[in-house]
Amino acid sequence: AQSVTQPDIHITVSEGASLELRCNYSYGATPYLFWYVQSPGQGLQLLLKYFSGDTLVQGIKGFEAEFKRSQSSFNLRKPSVHWSDAAEYFCAVGADSNYQLIWGAGTKLIIKP
Amino acid sequence: DAGVTQSPTHLIKTRGQQVTLRCSPKSGHDTVSWYQQALGQGPQFIFQYYEEEERQRGNFPDRFSGHQFPNYSSELNVNALLLGDSALYLCASSFGTPWEQYFGPGTRLTVT
Description:
The complex is a heterodimer.
Chain A: E1 3-5, E2 10-14, E3 19-21, E4 24-26, E5 32-38, E6 44-50, E7 56-58, E8 64-68, E9 73-78, E10 87-95, E11 98-103, E12 107-112
Parallel strand pairs in A: 2-12
Antiparallel strand pairs in A: 1-4, 3-9, 5-6, 5-10, 7-8, 8-9, 10-11, 10-12
Chain B: E1 5-7, E2 10-13, E3 19-24, E4 31-37, E5 44-50, E6 53-57, E7 64-68, E8 74-78, E9 87-94, E10 102-103, E11 107-111
Parallel strand pairs in B: 2-11
Antiparallel strand pairs in B: 1-3, 3-8, 4-5, 4-9, 5-6, 7-8, 9-10, 9-11
């Protein structure tokens, strides 16, 4: 069965510092990979997606993610975080075998001034 | 270009009651998925509707049912509410690629 692991429940980063959020998935074939962001009490906003091709994908708000098949990972990065990036970040996986997205438990990003 | 809209925003119900949540997809989208998100957790897939039929269902009891209308909007119905049904209910729409989903703001359901 597919699964998604986000190992870090919370991450604290200073404003202006770089960020990397980890995501590992379990699936036999090439998955469809997504990162979403959720502000408190809000819905989910799609940051970026990977279907195929270039393994480094660019998203909105200056985020990027890299698909590493050998590590079954799809880590999210940002070179310099802003206070407005404080939110919860979710990694999700889709696959040809079904239509749903499988979600990680989320990583809460805290920004130190 | 309107995004995904959901109504109501908040809802308080009593155990045993029934509730209906509504969703209008993003313009041009024909597929609607529903998710339940408990506090501090990732979303859990309830079901997906396409061409007015339930295309796939997650691990939820039959108390959870849905409908999709010819204009692609959708309803989620929950019968015999339990305290554990308290959650944020998210609707997502898509077109073509069912996994690239765009979410509404959610409906916060509280069962007392």
